[in-house]
Amino acid sequence: MTSSRPTRYRPPACRQQGVAAIELVLLLPVLMAFMSLSVFTISVFWHYTIVQKAAQNAAHYLSTVSASEMMSPASADAAGTLAQAIVRRQIAEISTAAEVARIDVFCDDSTCGGLAAGRVPSTVRVKFSISMFDPSGFIDVGWYGLPISANYTMRYVGN
After folding, report:
1. For residue 145, what are the contacts with CB-CB under 8 A and spacing of at least 6?
2. Bridge partner residues of 103 (DSSP)
3. CA–CA dist 12, 21 (Å, integer)
4. Whole-angstrom distance between the N-terminal and C-terminal Cα of the chain?
5. Which residues lie below 8 Å from residue 154, measured CB to CB, with a gap of 6+?
6. pLDDT given at position 20
7. CA separation (Å) from 83 to 17, 48, 59, 80?
8. Which of 70, 80, 129, 155 gives 105 a disulfide partner, CB atoms 3.0 to 4.6 angstroms apart?
9. Could you tell me how far CA 49 lies from the centroid of its own chain?
10. What is the mean pLDDT of residues 88-92?
11. pLDDT tier for residue 101 given thresholds of 50, 70 and 90
């Protein structure tokens, strides 16, 4: 007489070896894309904040220049040049890849040196734009980069 022995049960864990590695291979590119996109978004907001702060600092400097200096076209032009230097210095601190194309400094609606002699402005304005590039290289922002603009207007306190 032969006795029938029941077959031994094998748990399913033995058949699923390597499934976690396959899932990781399939999900890793998606996770990397989300991570790089979030880092890039944070970088854009950080650059935007610094650009706005640079424009605010330059406009604040211009608004506190003495009235006697603003009445002289040469001194007002020198103050405008110094405001541009403030912007360039602060932008150079955040990123070497950020390029400042052009910085416009206005007293009322003309350049600070273009006011009539003996006249002080009622407002000062600093306006410029930078081109930001992704330092990691994961996100293509084009040939000219991502433009970030700043435009800050303040009342002139020398009135």
Report:
1. 99, 131, 132, 133
2. 128
3. 17
4. 117
5. 59, 60, 62, 63, 123, 124, 125
6. 83
7. 65, 19, 7, 5
8. 80
9. 6
10. 90
11. confident
Q: What is the C-alpha radius of gyration for the chain, rounded to an integer number of angstroms?
A: 30
Report the residue count for the chain: 159
| pLDDT at 128 (0 to 100) | 93
Residue 6, pLDDT > 60, answer yes
Q: Model pTM?
A: 0.75
Tokens representing 64 are 């506190």
Helix axis angle for 73-94 and 19-63, nearest 10°, is 160
Token pair for 46: 């950080």
Q: Which two tokens stand for residue 66?
A: 């003495």
In three-state form (DSSP H/G/I as H, E/B as E, the rest C), the secondary structure along the chain is CCCCCCCCCCCHHHHHCCHHHHHHHHHHHHHHHHHHHHHHHHHHHHHHHHHHHHHHHHHHHHHCCCHHHHHCHHHHHHHHHHHHHHHHHHHHHHCCCCEEEEEEEEECCEEHHHCCCCCCCCEEEEEEEEEECCCCCCCCCCCCCEEEEEEEEEECCCC
